[in-house]
Amino acid sequence: MLQTWAGSRTYSYCFLIPPLFFYLVWIRRRATAKLVPSPNFWGLPVLGGLALIWILGNLGDVRVVQEFAIVAMLIALVWTLLGNDVVRALQFPLLFLFFAVPFGVSLIRPLQNFTAWFVIHALNASNVPALLENHTLSLPSGTWTVAEACSGIRFLLSSVVLGAVFASLAYRSRKRQLAFMVASVIAPVVGNGLRAYSIVLLAYLTHNRLAAGVDHIVYGTFFSVFTELVLISVGLRWRQPRAPDDATAINSGNALEALGNYKRSPSMATTAAVILALALILPAPLVASHLWDRVTAATVWPEPPVIVSTPWQTAETSDTNWAPELHGTDKEFSQSYQNERNRVDLHWVASSGRSRMDLAGNYSSVDDPKLWSLASADFGNVTLNGQPTSVQRNLIQAGTDFRTVLTWYWISGEYTASPARVRFLQAKARLFGKPATVAIMSLGTVEQADPSAAERVLQDFLLHASFLVPGGTRPRW
Fold this sequence. Notes:
The protein is α+β, with helices and mostly antiparallel strands.
C-alpha cells in the first residue's frame, strides 16, 4: 500500500489517512476514556474469515482484496480485544481507515466518458463548433484529448475523503452526513466537466494563448480547490454543534459493574483473545507461501506458440511498443504477419504461474503524445481455434496514429477476456496445487479508413491461425 501511495499521484492523498485517523480518535478521547474495554470473542470467527479472504486474494494476486482484508482485520482486532462499546465509540475513525486502500481504478473509464460527453454538449450549447471522436475533441482552433488524467479521479477521491472528515466533524444527523457525502461525489464529477469545458472554451476564445501548456495545469488545480472551498462553505451553513463528550459513553452504573468484572479477571480473557487472534492471523502468510510453492510446473510451450496457414505469411517484425506493458512474464514471442496489403502484429507472453504477473497492460502514458494511450475499450467476439471466444477490443492512440488491439487470455484449458476470471482460476489452481500457467495474447493492426476494416483483418487472420498450448498437438492443414 505504501508503495502505491508513493508511486501514484492519484493515491498520494492516502498518506493523510493515518494522521487523520489518529486525529479523529483523539477528538473522541474523553468519551472513549470512560469506557471499559472488554474482549468480544465473536470477533474471532470474523478474523478467521478475513484471514481466509486474504489468502484467496494472495493466491489470485488481487492486491485490492488483500488490502481491504488487512484493514478489515485491524478493525476486527479492535472489536475482539476491546469490545462493542469501544468500537461503537470509534466506529467512524475505524471505517475511515478503508480510505487507505488504493481503489477506484475502475472508475477512470466512466469518468473519462462522462467528461468527454459533458464537454462536447457544453461546447455545442455555447455555439462552439466541435466534434467528438472517441475521446478526441476537434475544434477549429485545435485538437484536445480527454485523457485518463482528465477523468477527474484524483479530484473525486480526495473530495470524498475530505467530505467524509468534514461530515463527521460538522454534523450529528446521519441524514446531513449522507447528504454532504453525496454532494462530495457529485460536485467533483460535475466540477471536473466544467473545468475541462472552461479550459477548452478559454483556449478557443483566445486562440490558444490561454489555458494551454502550464496554464492548463495551473487553471485546473485552481478550479479544483475553488470547487472544494465552495462545497465546504455551503456545508457550513447547516453545521450542528458537537454532541457532549459522554454521549457515546455507557452509563455510570454499567461502567462500575463492567469495571468490577474487568478487575476480577482482566488478564485471562484478554490474553486468550490475543492468543486466539494471533493464531488465526499469523499463519495466513505462511499458508499462502506454502500454496504458492507447491504449484506444479507447467508443460513446455510449443515453439512457436502460433502457426498460420496461407494466404497469411510471416513478415519482418516491426516495433512492439504498441503492446501492453506487462511485468513478471517468463516467456515472450512477437511476430508480424502479412496477407497482401494487410498486416497484423502479434505479441504473446506467458507465465508459469509460480510468480506474480501483471494482467492489465499500461496504456495510460497520456503525458507523452509519442506513447500509446487508451482511446476506447469494449468487448467483442471472434473465432479462435474454431471456437467462438470473447476478447477485449481496445483502440489505442499515439498522436494521430490509431491501432486496434484484441487481447485475450489462456488458462486452465480455456480462453477468456476477463482478468477477473483469470485471477479466479489462478487462485483455484494454486489452492489445489494445479498448474497456474497463463498466456496473454494481443493482436493489433493499424487503423483503417473504414472503422470496421481493421477488425475484419484481425478476424481473417484468426481464421487462419492456430494457437498452441502446453501439451497440445499441432493442427493439420
